[in-house]
């Protein structure tokens, strides 16, 4: 399918989101669509698939003018959309989710359960994804749920597939599986529009890149003719320099030490983090990294092991205990666990430390506002009023709010679980800088991340986990992508 | 991202002005209609009458507002009202001093509520089920204690009579009590850490827990508060009737939920305000009083009341759509 978007304009009330965007998708190409949050990528895709009608401009499909009135119409024409947000029904099985809305039925509308189970198994095997198709979706990891979503779209015999940040929750292995399938589809003539913030992936997978900035199409280039630097410059409109800050922190004493920690999905995990150090946790999805951190923070209970803070054993049974001891935890699921979406910036920022902004239990509005304002300034959450609900902020700004909230605790130990997931390049860099500054001021930082370049770029040491145990610890100097993956997969 | 920014303008986090002013507008419409049909409605006497009639439902509904803001529900308040009422009446019959009896009654309500909270948090039972069970238990205890008969002969403590029947200047004491409670609870919800935590739990319980909020503790306190307010309502009722009825407060929880919902508070938790609840209770009270003045049969009144609730909620949904 050949799609051309010409001079697309779209405004929401007074806000003009798209200001004359041109975009072309050729049959059988994988085309990256890049831009910072708010550049107009999602809106453009929604115009293309008929969720919004453009104010100006035209859409040509195989040379003929075409206007979808509804996303369903686009779907019937063979344009599938894999959304960033998961549309999985948690109480249904993998099979039921895969066939939702297009169940195979026999006479009298009877559902052909066995047939569907068999096909689901075949299908996932084809994608190189291994999970129990009878498992209820709730029990799967976010990455596995994402794979269901992707499999669903691939099952529709689409001619064009739009993928909006499909890999944000996937492990390296799952990403490789997705890429293999994408390439196979491309070879059959399917076109893919690939929206992502991850440069390495785009340069690995795509043929062309179109960059949007502030609702305008800035450039369309062949991958082979461009570079990371050029693409980033197109996106942000200026040079942003090195991706990872140069770290100069001198390491102090061991702040937190974990000995033989045992929990539900991990056992005998030991590691330590020194003041000023950033320790990266790498591993595949489900390796138990998040579970260890949740136990360390008191969000889950642990069955055994010792946690020592500054050499003294401490007991952590609830998050409140952990916070009391100066441990803060930025969770991987920002919207589900990190933020109160209906609360304003001010209320979110002050929540974990509200007691400090109150006399007795009466909140001092003035103290709260001053506190929130300082954090907002420090983290450069731009263009937003303190009273704005956080659900209307971009991913990057939301993540900064979560960080700011925890900085109020003045933590000695900061645990960051996927700190830059779904965050654009500019904000990513700012988050790296904040981490670096915090380390410099003596905070011990633990960073769990599935973004391997990020782990390699930011960590002083890397702890690798596989199936609930620590399989290796690497220093910055000895760590390579290959070594980390070897430990993570058990060496192949 | 862009889409979210625009939708959130239409649907702000807590309550938007449309949602805040909607219930007030509804109340005004009802007042105007009733006054047009029966001008006597707006007499000062009758207004205070309405406030007094509303006070019991409003007190219960205030507690219910906190509970519903956390995403819970409390079906047991009618039974707590009856049990507290019977206990207080029993103590008075036994010659206990009225102040002491009232204090113990309030404590009993708080303890019964705290038990609800403990079952819900530590027992991990859904609030609907937990309070459905305790509703039956507390009602049963009331019947056991009273042997199914009203308790009368409370003596003539002037102080106790004031609570339900007295006037402060020209304002009925129950109305005054209700307004005082409203002031205190409004302050708690709006200005204290406890209030903020209430909204946080309803907004996202898991996130609240991970921010170090003692979710269980806050919830138990909220159910306890709900129980205590039900006991207060029970005491006012006891004073008003000068007796305790074993079946008092039956289905009061439904009127309270109706008041909360009419006020715009979301049953899903996290969104709403207590001013709305006061207005919701006033809407129900005005309807009852107005329909009585107009001589509408009490059977038909139920139909009207239900229809108004349905209409209001449908309107609210349209605004939210």
Task: Compile the SSE list and pairings.
The complex is a heterodimer of chains A (492) and B (321).
Chain A: E1 3-12, E2 15-25, E3 30-34, H1 41-48, E4 56-61, E5 64-65, H2 71-76, E6 79-82, H3 94-98, H4 113-126, H5 142-154, E7 160-164, H6 172-187, E8 191-195, H7 199-205, E9 208-213, E10 216-222, H8 228-236, E11 254-262, E12 269-274, E13 278-283, H9 289-296, E14 304-309, E15 312-314, H10 319-324, E16 327-330, H11 334-338, H12 345-350, E17 358-359, E18 362-363, H13 365-379, H14 395-407, E19 413-417, H15 425-440, E20 444-448, H16 452-458, E21 461-466, E22 469-475, H17 481-489
Parallel strand pairs in A: 3-8, 3-9, 6-7, 7-8, 13-20, 13-21, 16-19, 19-20
Antiparallel strand pairs in A: 1-2, 1-4, 4-5, 9-10, 11-12, 11-14, 14-15, 17-18, 21-22
Chain B: H1 2-10, H2 17-37, H3 44-69, H4 77-93, H5 98-121, H6 127-146, H7 158-165, E1 167-168, E2 171-172, H8 173-191, H9 193-203, H10 205-210, H11 215-241, H12 252-262, H13 274-293, H14 298-320
Antiparallel strand pairs in B: 1-2
Low-confidence blocks of residues of chain B: 1-13
What sort of overall outline of chain A do the alpha carbons produce when their principal axes are compared? Answer: globular
What is the level-2 CATH architecture name of chain B?
Orthogonal Bundle
Which band does the percent of strand residues of chain B land in? Answer: under 5%
Overall average residue pLDDT of chain B = 90
When the domains of chain B are counted, the total is 1
Strand order of the largest sheet of chain A: 6-7-8-3-9-10
What is the first-to-last residue Cα distance of chain B?
19 Å
Say what the CATH topology of chain B is: ABC transporter involved in vitamin B12 uptake, BtuC
Strand ordering within the main sheet of chain B: 1-2
Q: Indicate the proportion of strand residues of chain A.
A: 15-25%
Give the CATH topology of the largest domain in chain A.
Rossmann fold
CATH architecture tag of the largest domain in chain A: 3-Layer(aba) Sandwich
Write down the Rg of chain A: 24 Å
Helix content of chain A: 25-40%
Number of strands of chain A: 22
Q: Into how many domains do the coordinates of chain A divide?
A: 2
Count the helices of chain A. How many?
A: 17
CATH top-level class of the largest domain in chain A: Alpha Beta
Low-confidence stretches of chain A: none
């Amino acid at each position: 399918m050949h799609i051309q978007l010409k001079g697309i304009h779209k405004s929401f009330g007074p806000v003009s989101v798209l200001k004359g965007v041109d975009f072309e998708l050729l049959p059988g190409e994988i085309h990256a669509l890049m831009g910072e949050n708010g550049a107009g990528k999602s809106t453009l895709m929604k115009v293309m698939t008929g969720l919004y009608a453009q104010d100006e401009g035209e859409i040509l499909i195989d040379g003929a003018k075409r206007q979808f009135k509804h996303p369903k119409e686009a779907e019937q024409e063979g344009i599938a959309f894999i959304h960033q947000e998961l549309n999985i029904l948690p109480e249904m099985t993998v099979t039921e989710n895969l066939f939702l809305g297009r169940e195979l039925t026999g006479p009298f509308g009877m559902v052909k359960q066995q047939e569907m189970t068999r096909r689901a198994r075949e299908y996932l095997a084809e994608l190189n994804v291994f999970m129990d198709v009878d498992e209820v979706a709730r029990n799967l990891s976010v990455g596995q749920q994402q794979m269901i979503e992707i499999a669903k779209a691939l099952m529709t015999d689409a001619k064009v597939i739009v993928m909006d940040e499909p890999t944000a929750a996937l492990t390296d292995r799952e990403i490789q599986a997705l890429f293999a399938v994408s390439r196979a589809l491309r070879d059959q003539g399917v076109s893919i529009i690939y929206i992502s913030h991850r440069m390495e992936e785009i340069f690995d997978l795509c043929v062309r890149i179109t960059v949007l900035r502030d609702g305008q199409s800035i450039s369309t280039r062949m991958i082979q003719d461009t570079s990371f630097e050029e693409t980033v410059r197109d996106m942000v409109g200026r040079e942003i320099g090195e991706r990872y800050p140069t770290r100069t922190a001198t390491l102090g004493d061991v702040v937190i030490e974990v000995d033989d920690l045992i929990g539900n999905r991990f056992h005998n995990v030991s590691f330590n983090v020194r003041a000023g150090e950033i320790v990266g946790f790498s591993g595949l999805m489900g390796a138990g990294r998040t579970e260890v951190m949740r136990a360390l923070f008191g969000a889950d209970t642990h069955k055994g092991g010792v946690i020592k803070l500054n050499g003294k054993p401490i007991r952590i049974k609830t998050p409140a205990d952990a916070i009391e001891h100066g441990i803060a935890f930025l969770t991987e699921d920002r919207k589900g666990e990190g933020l109160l979406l209906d609360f304003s910036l001010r209320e979110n920022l002050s929540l974990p430390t509200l007691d400090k902004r109150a006399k007795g239990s009466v909140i001092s509005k003035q103290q709260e506002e001053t506190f929130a304002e300082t954090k907002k300034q420090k983290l450069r959450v731009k263009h937003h009023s303190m009273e704005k609900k956080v659900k209307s902020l971009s991913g990057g700004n939301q993540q900064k709010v979560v960080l700011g909230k925890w900085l109020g605790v003045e933590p000695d130990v900061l645990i960051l679980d996927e700190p830059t997931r779904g965050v654009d390049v500019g904000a990513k860099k700012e988050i790296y800088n904040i981490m670096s500054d915090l380390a410099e001021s003596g905070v011990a930082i633990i960073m769990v991340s599935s973004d391997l370049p990020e782990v390699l770029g930011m960590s002083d040491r890397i702890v690798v986990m596989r199936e609930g145990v620590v399989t290796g610890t690497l220093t910055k100097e000895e760590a390579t992508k290959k070594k980390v993956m070897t430990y993570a997969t058990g060496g192949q | 991202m862009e889409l979210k920014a625009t939708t959130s303008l239409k649907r702000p986090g807590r309550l938007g002005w449309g949602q805040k002013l909607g219930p007030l507008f509804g109340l005004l419409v009802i007042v105007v209609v009733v006054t047009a049909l029966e001008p006597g409605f707006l007499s000062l006497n009758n207004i205070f009458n309405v406030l007094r009639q509303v006070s019991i439902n409003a007190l219960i509904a205030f507690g219910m507002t906190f509970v519903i803001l956390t995403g819970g529900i409390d079906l047991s308040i009618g039974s707590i009202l009856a049990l507290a009422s019977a206990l207080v009446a029993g103590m008075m019959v036994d010659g206990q001093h009225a102040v002491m009896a009232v204090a113990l009654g309030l404590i009993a309500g708080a303890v019964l509520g705290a038990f609800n909270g403990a079952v819900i948090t530590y027992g991990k039972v859904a609030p609907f089920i937990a309070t459905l069970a305790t509703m039956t238990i507390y009602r049963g205890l009331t019947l056991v204690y009273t042997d199914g008969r009203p308790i009368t002969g409370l003596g003539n403590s002037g102080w106790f009579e004031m609570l339900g029947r007295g006037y402060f200047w020209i304002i009925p004491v129950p109305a005054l009590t209700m307004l005082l409670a409203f002031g205190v609870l409004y302050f708690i919800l709006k200005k204290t850490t406890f209030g903020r935590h209430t909204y946080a739990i309803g907004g996202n319980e898991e996130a609240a827990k991970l921010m170090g909020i003692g979710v269980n503790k806050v919830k138990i306190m909220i159910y306890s508060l709900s129980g205590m307010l039900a006991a207060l309502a029970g005491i006012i009722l006891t004073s008003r009737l000068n007796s305790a009825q074993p079946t008092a407060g039956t289905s009061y929880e439904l009127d309270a939920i109706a008041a909360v919902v009419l006020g715009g508070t979301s049953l899903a938790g996290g969104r709403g305000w207590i001013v709305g609840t006061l207005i919701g209770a006033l809407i129900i009270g005005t309807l009852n009083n107005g329909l009585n003045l107009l001589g509408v049969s009490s059977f038909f009144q139920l139909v009207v009341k239900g229809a108004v609730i349905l209409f209001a909620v449908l309107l609210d949904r349209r605004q939210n759509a």
